[in-house]
Amino acid sequence: MSHKPEELLAVTLARLIRARPTRHIAVGAASPIPAAACWLVSKGGSPVRLSLLHKRSGNPFTEGTRELFDLTGQGRIDLFFLGGGQIDGQANLNLIGTGEWPGREVRFPGSFGSAFMYFMAGRTILFREEHSSRVLVDRVAHISAPGVSEPGVFRRGHAQALVTGRCVFGFDPARGRFTLETLHPGETLENIRAETGFDFDVAPSLGETPAPTAEELALLRGPVCDEMMETYPEFCSRVFERKAAA
Amino acid sequence: MTTLEEMAASVPDGALLALPPDNSLPSVALAKALIRRGAKGLRLLGVPVSGFATDLLIGAGCVAEVQTSAVSLGEAGFAPRFSAAVRAGTLKVVDATCPAIHTMLQAAEKGVPFMPLRGLIGSDILANRPDWVVMDSPFGDGERIVALPALSPDVAAFHGVMADSLGNVWVGRRRECATLAHSSRRVLVTVERVMEGNFLEDERLAPGTISGTYIEAVAVAERGAHPVALLDEYGFDANHVAAYARAARTEAGFNEWLAEHVFTQRAAA
């Protein structure tokens, strides 16, 4: 069955979610693809609690916006998603900008909660659709949130993986390095090397990112889309070809 | 009760003014009134990030400094006048991360000089914050942790749904506005309407109510959060914000937008 690139990314993220025990996921990024992945896991029958911070109704927190951070500090958030204007080979994230501090060349919006969530969530999946040497750099211009921490600094979790529009990298916090694990259809190792600004290892089992199954596509286009219409109408229309009711 | 324009006049130039972001009851009406009064040198605090109202105030030349964890128009993208001011070097930006701003306000709320927060170590945010201090845990467990100073804004401003006869304000589940009210020296609130009675005597309203103890002034400003959403009262006006984002790409476009949406509003009122 044919599928859109966004659908491949959603099922790929969902597979990474299911790869480890996950009770509670918070999605803070504005990107709808991680949200689709979370709903896919949930609608596929896994009992997981979702706190979708960009949902227009049904905000789960009644103690104010600090409650997400308090929950995460306690270790109650197993998985968070982060991206970055720049991501480097040690999984450092830059949401500040480029040029002299605080981003005199190109200013990104800012770090949001990353300098806390990246340490304190059980784990983080890094997601950035654009895969280019502009985004995936050898060394970020500024560190919003570091990929690894020195001894004596409390850190509960690290990056599990980096998913881009071209491939999936795993991350080993002990070595502070990414390993290329799967290539999306049409990509080659040579192409990934050319488009990536940092050095990485290659899994001996390097293969193609598995395509969505018919069952996954049916869930995405049906019940997942139903849940996402209110928050992401444009995305649902473009990817799932669902029009909002007039 | 006061009027919106009187409220704006009471905010001194140079004040440290705390504003919640677009999902959290900003008073866009008061931001526009501050622009009309020609406020200067404001130091804005995003609680914990900044949105539409902050971009307006920066573009109108009211702001010297912004302390925040991000400035964004959400789905409409980067905040154009913030970005332009950073590029031009005319705005001092003090970067933070969301829970650090909450923690500094919570320290002020408790009346203690500082509170610790995990994370942060290894981030260039910390490297650019001489006011944040890394310390050894005093409990001898070998943990290094960041101590954040208490922060009391000079003025906090937000937009509640309704006030009662006693000056209590109902904000529903947006309890970050309560933390902000508890920690700030002065609290100015715009509301959609004023109701008879006392919200604190109603068991269902009391948990979402901020006591008038903390609130200096209330002014009615109908649709005072627009184009931002206000709880279940009205939704986010995405078309309005997208049109702003397009217009504000240039200073000239921004000034035309101000003339139409900020300076003509008073004439119509």
TrEMBL record, chain A:
<dbReference type="Pfam" id="PF01144">
    <property type="entry name" value="CoA_trans"/>
</dbReference>
<protein>
    <submittedName>
        <fullName>CoA synthetase</fullName>
    </submittedName>
</protein>
<dbReference type="InterPro" id="IPR037171">
    <property type="entry name" value="NagB/RpiA_transferase-like"/>
</dbReference>
<dbReference type="InterPro" id="IPR004165">
    <property type="entry name" value="CoA_trans_fam_I"/>
</dbReference>
TrEMBL record, chain B:
<dbReference type="InterPro" id="IPR037171">
    <property type="entry name" value="NagB/RpiA_transferase-like"/>
</dbReference>
<dbReference type="Pfam" id="PF01144">
    <property type="entry name" value="CoA_trans"/>
</dbReference>
<dbReference type="InterPro" id="IPR004165">
    <property type="entry name" value="CoA_trans_fam_I"/>
</dbReference>
<protein>
    <submittedName>
        <fullName>CoA synthetase</fullName>
    </submittedName>
</protein>
